[in-house]
Amino acid sequence: MHILVVDDERSMRVVLEVLLLRSGYRVTCVEGVRAAREVLESTLVDLVITDMKLGATQSGMDVLRAARAQSDAPEVIVITAFGTAASAVEAMREGAYDYIGKPFDNEELLLLVQKALEKRTLRQENVSLREHLVPGVGVMAVGRGERMRAVWSMVDKVAPTRSTVLIHGESGTGKELIAKALHLKSPRAGQPFLPINCAALNEGVLESELFGHVKGAFTGATQDRPGLLVHAGEGTVFLDEIGEVPPATQVKLLRVLQERKVKPVGSSAEIPFHARILAATNRRLDAEVKAGRFREDLFYRLNVITLELPPLRERPEDIAPLAEHFLSRQRRELERPGLRFSPEALSVLSAYAFPGNVRQLENVVERAATLADGDVLTLASLPPSLRGEPVQAAAAATPEVALGAGFSLERHLDEAERHYLVAALAQAGGVKTRAADLLGLTFRSFRYRLAKHGLSDREDEA
Known about the structure:
By secondary structure, the chain is an alpha/beta fold. It has 4 domains: 2-131, Response regulator (Rossmann fold, 3-Layer(aba) Sandwich); 158-309, Rossmann fold; 313-386, Orthogonal Bundle (Helicase, Ruva Protein, domain 3), CATH 1.10.8; 413-453, Arc Repressor Mutant, subunit A (Orthogonal Bundle), CATH 1.10.10. 46% of the residues lie in helices and 14% in strands. It is built from 19 helices and 18 strands. The longest helix has 27 residues, at 106-132. The radius of gyration is 29 Å and the shape is elongated. 30% of the residues are buried. This is Type IV fimbriae expression regulatory protein PilR. Keywords: ATP-binding, Nucleotide-binding, Phosphoprotein, Transcription, Transcription regulation. Residues 2-117 form the Response regulatory domain.
């Protein structure tokens, strides 16, 4: 934990520094308001201990206000020999953790420091929990637009019910976060939330994961295993990318949803389940039904209630608050509390269409914060594509192609396809589902193309 000590008396700074260092804290000592501001803006500080009277003209109240103005504000303890009831009330009203008078007992001060830091730790843990778990506070709730207010209104109405909900939205709009919100706002919140990506598993594995299997059902099935629908108990099972479920599994899933019973792979016995089903897709399932790729009866079974998540380009008013939210997270993770956007950078972000939606915005902010040399994220901190610049100047020109004897368009296109597959895998860090999203492909199509070009591994071939 990092503690900033502000006192105009050198002897008091030395006493506090030695006392705190012996207790295992990291300590920075300064003598005035200006130096304190510089430390607060450049370094992550967990606690400030400041004298109330700093020379003839400065005040510890100025340090307190500077500390409380930080995005991740530290706790503040005010120490003074000029203590009055009025100054104590003023300090507490301005947000000080506590107030102690000189002379003070060392053990009393250390106990106060410990309690102040415990409060800060608890506050940070609560922020992290709310961002990841609690609906209405995390990233999906950041925004002021009417579209997202309507989504949250629907979540509030639907969450307490047992109804099946189909969540539709483009990749990166936060479908799983909405599913978690539905779960956490429901009476099932204390039970498991079990997601499964239907596009990432082949037909046999998907059925085993959903319905379970018995010992000996297939090679490697060394013991009975309950599927997610049973294992979830009274909780929630989230079927992500439901539009990618193979036709044969669609038939079985329809029967399971109708009967509320599962038949494990390799078994003739049926097991009832009580979990709620939520599903999500980035496809228009009604169009998939017309094209014969998705069963109409399963579509209507899933489509009891539909939640439409708008793409980020349709709610530009939410871009700036979302960007600030992601930057706040980077300030904590990078321990750089002074990070901020320049007005020009924030304006460019707000005007961009973000085809990758909220996920792309989060990645852009993380990249800018990580690579920034200073605290101000300027236009130069943003990727060239956001600034309207081509990634390569030659990309806009029409390439010259030799169409002489021996030219093969099919071979040329195969080479280009392989190049983009490799590039997507590299950009996605080897995560195949993410690489498929980058190329606008379904996972199944992506896996087929990998195999076609000899890029698949044993897991894909299986």
